[in-house]
Design a protein that fits this description.
The chain has helices at residues 15-26, 37-50, 55-81, 104-112, 122-126, 140-156, 160-163, 175-178, 186-190, 194-200, 206-222, 242-248, 261-276, 284-309, 319-324, 326-336, 343-354, 375-381, 383-390, and strands spanning 91-98, 117-118, 230-234, 253-258, 314-318. It has 391 residues and is of the alpha/beta class. A 5-stranded parallel beta sheet has the order 2-3-1-4-5, sandwiched between helices.
Length: 391
């Protein structure tokens, strides 16, 4: 008969405990508008019931939540001390969307390398508020935090190095920030929370994007060299919520990257399996079943939304064409958003490409069979998309 000492208590997230940890770390109490508590509660409910976190995974996800809340506390305090932050003028000129694994990461970084462009850096997304005592323009501690985080990931899941170009200094996705407000697919990308996912599809996430605008102003205030530059955002998370991002940034060009779902689906499921491996005990088949249906659902939602948004907002970029003529495809986009094509631009883009070749990383290997995926089912679910953009 088991005794109390024999029973290992499964750790559980608790909202008040998480908020208290953030307050203690920051030495501050004001979170500003607490609209985010509703999605936070939904995440906690789902994670406690479904996430299958290991003890180390629970600790890691706790840190993700606490550091996000801490950044919010620090930002609110900085805005009180420096109200001019809210006067910053940001120009979000382009937003990349599309299925994941469509070359959007390298294309995002290519566009961001152009003169006159800027983007959120990975280390900034992890901690968007400066650490106490940080020297302006020299975020040594935040960079070190990000490097340690990436090293920890690669130690637990080394295959990530072949799947995604991890670089703490490189441009990355705004969903890393939105996830800290519990309103992006980054939440489900790092933690298995299907119940939360279903709820998120019905929730008005616009408050998150309003806060994102403030955070972009905050990042620009931290680095005045960004003033006058055009921001380029990117995330596959924009696909199922395309109208949300279109409304949030009404002047932004919507850049849709395309690749055959026959490659996209197993590639992304493989990436999710590697990410869940960091913190949870899930089988490959569980990951495959969830993410195949999720990706198909994303595309169905998007196809309906694109018709309502209007074709004039979009430019389509084929994965195959980027591989053949990256400069041509980049200049197509940059000319649409007002960046002049000249010798200086071509030199910057060429320099970026020289240092970011795919063969500089290990090859990413994946298969349908490993994840219980069915080729006919993928063809069926993505038939309309493949007919329009791939064939």
């Amino acid at each position: 008969m088991a005794t109390t000492a024999d029973v290992t208590q499964t750790p559980a997230f608790d909202r008040e405990n998480l908020l208290a940890q953030a307050r203690e770390r920051a030495g501050l109490n004001d979170f500003g508008d607490t609209w985010f508590l509703e999605p936070m509660d939904k995440f906690i409910e789902s994670a406690n019931a479904e996430a299958k976190l290991t003890p180390a995974g629970f600790a890691a996800q706790t840190e993700v939540v606490v550091k996000g809340l801490t950044s919010r506390l620090r930002m609110i305090e900085d805005i009180k001390q420096h109200p001019e932050i809210l006067d910053e003028q940001i120009d979000v000129a382009g937003v990349i969307l599309g299925l994941p694994r469509t070359g959007s990461t390298i294309f995002h970084r290519l566009l961001a390398s152009a003169p006159g462009m800027t983007a959120i850096r990975w280390y900034e997304a992890q901690n968007f508020a400066p650490f106490p005592g940080e020297e302006p323009g020299n975020p040594v501690e935040r960079r070190a935090y990000a490097e340690a985080m990436l090293n920890g990931w690669l130690e637990l899941s080394p295959e990530l190095n072949s799947i995604h170009p991890l670089d703490s200094e490189a441009p990355d996705e705004e969903i890393l920030i939105l996830g800290q407000m519990f309103v992006s697919t980054m939440v489900e990308g790092m933690t298995f929370v299907p119940g939360f996912t279903r709820w998120l599809d019905t929730y008005d996430q616009s408050r998150g994007h309003e806060d994102l605008k403030t955070i972009l102003k905050y990042l620009q205030w931290q680095d005045p060299t960004r003033r006058g530059k055009k921001w380029i955002l990117k995330s596959p998370s924009n696909l199922p919520y395309a109208e949300l991002v279109a409304n949030a940034f009404p002047n932004a060009l919507l850049i849709m990257t395309h690749r055959d779902p026959m490659d996209v689906v197993p590639s992304y499921v493989s990436m999710e399996a590697a990410l869940y491996k960091l913190s949870a005990t899930l089988t490959d088949k569980e990951v495959g079943e969830f993410w195949f249906q999720r990706l198909a659902g994303w595309m169905h939602r998007f196809q309906e939304a694109r018709a309502r948004i209007g074709e004039d907002r979009f430019i389509d970029i084929d994965y195959r064409e980027v591989g053949k003529e990256p400069l041509v495809q980049a200049e197509r986009v940059l000319s649409r958003i007002g960046i002049k094509t000249d010798e200086r631009l071509e030199e910057a883009l060429t320099e970026f490409l020289a240092g970011n070749k795919r063969e500089q990383r290990p090859m990413h290997e994946y298969s349908l069979e490993r994840f219980g995926l069915d080729e006919d089912a993928i063809r069926r679910e993505f038939a309309d998309y493949r007919a329009r953009y791939i064939s």
